[in-house]
Amino acid sequence: MCSEPAEDQILVTLVPAPGIEMLIDKAYGCQPTEVQFFNEVNQEYVSYYWAFDDPESGIENFSNDPSPIHIYENPGLYNVYLTLTNAVTGCSADYSFTDFVQVFENPQADFRPVPEVADIIDPDILFSDLSIDAVSWFWQFGDGAISFNSNPTHVYHEIGIFDVNLLVTSEDGCIDTITHPIEINPVHTFYAPTAFFPRPQGFYEENGFWTPEATGVSDCSTCYDLYIFDRWGEIIFETHEFYGHNPSEENRWNGRVRNHGKIVQNGVYTWYVELVDINGKEHIYIGPVTVLR
């Protein structure tokens, strides 16, 4: 014989899984791109486990921070995964966000100057662009000049070493930059007047003095010697400093013996110069100069 049916009540409580409202400070950028993730749903006793789809970042590919920051070093589209777990109930929820972050590849800036070393006589430099994925160019030539051309030519007007900087931009707005030095060297030239008109004392017209004109003369105590001889081979003037380096009246000839007394007689005198140029090469120059009174 069966007993009376028994009845009872059981209270079942359904706990909702942890919720999420995902936000990020930016969804795309150029490499490297730093992204911060946020969950706008405030929940107590919830633990976070993020996976950033970036295995090359090693342990940085994962985080338990509620609002983590991750740096994507390499270009590509990245999924983001998040597991939320309620520490009290043990309930969890998995979320995935497909193609959530995009990182654009940077262009590669590069160029070749032709030539890399030039002189002030021929200072035209052609800059050949070798960049990859560039759509715009910004050149700074190191002397204040700029260009937006892809393969510009630039003329330098001064000697020296100039750092040329190229900044390129890709179609995604990413940039890269590179710097190469350009060297513009002085050139040694030499010219000596063949005649001049000495002036009386107190008159200082430039054509009343005689001195060679030169460029690229080394500036040292033993790098320059100038002698002027009369018809008998006697030294009537000498200096051991180039007037272009030290523009003293003692370093150019005023038409007098040792630059003192009366002007020498009209006639042809011989000058002799030994010098060392900026490249360390020695030069000897000899010639006539006619004194006209």
Secondary structure elements and pairings:
Layout lengths: L21 E3 L3 E3 L2 E7 L6 E6 L10 E2 L5 E4 L3 E11 L5 E13 L6 E4 L2 E3 L4 E6 L6 E5 L5 E2 L5 E3 L4 E10 L5 E11 L3 E3 L3 E2 L16 E3 L8 E6 L5 E5 L16 E2 L2 E4 L3 E10 L5 E10 L2
Parallel strand pairs: 2-8, 10-16, 18-25
Antiparallel strand pairs: 1-3, 3-6, 4-5, 4-7, 7-8, 9-11, 11-14, 12-13, 12-15, 15-16, 17-19, 20-21, 20-24, 22-23, 24-25
Describe what you observe in this structure.
The chain is mostly beta strands and 293 residues long. The protein is 0% helix and 47% strand. Strand 7 (76-86) and strand 8 (92-104) form a beta hairpin. The radius of gyration is 41 Å and the shape is rod-shaped.
Question: What's this model, at a glance?
Answer:
The chain is mainly beta. It has strands spanning 22-24, 28-30, 33-39, 46-51, 62-63, 69-72, 76-86, 92-104, 111-114, 117-119, 124-129, 136-140, 146-147, 153-155, 160-169, 175-185, 189-191, 195-196, 213-215, 224-229, 235-239, 256-257, 260-263, 267-276, 282-291.
Keywords:
293 residues; mainly beta; five-stranded mixed beta sheet; 25 strands; rod-shaped
